[in-house]
Write a structure and sequence with these properties.
Blueprint lengths: L8 H11 L4 H9 L5 E3 L2 E3 L2 E3 L1 E4 L10 H12 L3 E6 L4 E4 L6 E4 L8 E5 L2 H8 E3 L7
Antiparallel strand pairs: 1-9, 2-3, 4-5, 5-6, 6-7, 7-8
């Protein structure tokens, strides 16, 4: 089994620049993301229930790394940036032009996109809870 490598912060920043991602909140998030910080919760939008499985990170592995996954999905996404997966393997997308977050329903739908938040911050507030910092107890 191949162990994934991490792309550098500079490579990731260059990639986000090339994709036109200006959302400072998302840029900061993906550079410092740590899965141990969040608890993913069930969300409902327009009658569609979903839960985040994971966000793409600095790994170079398709399905986990932001750059590798987007290069694999590029033909279907247009200008959207895939930023994560929800349970069931539909794709969480960020629109670099508007900042909106949508779910690309490639598994549970017919490829349509359902807008679930107007910004990345709104999305995080709706589907993730920050874990409490332990006081060493």
């Amino acid at each position: 089994m191949r162990v994934s490598n991490l792309v550098s912060d500079n490579e990731l920043i260059d990639y986000l620049d090339r994709c036109g991602v200006k959302d400072r909140s998302y840029r900061d998030f993906v550079l410092r993301f740590n899965t141990d910080e969040y608890i993913f919760t069930l969300c409902t939008t327009s009658g569609f229930d979903y839960a985040v499985s994971h966000f793409f990170d600095k790994s170079d592995k398709k399905g986990y790394g932001l750059i590798a996954t987007n290069e694999a999905l590029r033909t279907g996404l247009g200008h959207q940036l895939a930023i994560g997966l929800i349970e069931g393997d539909d794709v969480v997308c960020l629109d670099p032009k508007t900042g909106r977050i949508s779910i690309w329903m490639i598994q549970t739908g017919n490829g349509e996109q359902l807008v679930v938040a107007e910004s990345f911050d709104d999305f995080i507030r709706s589907c993730c809870e920050k874990k409490e910092q332990s006081n060493g107890r």
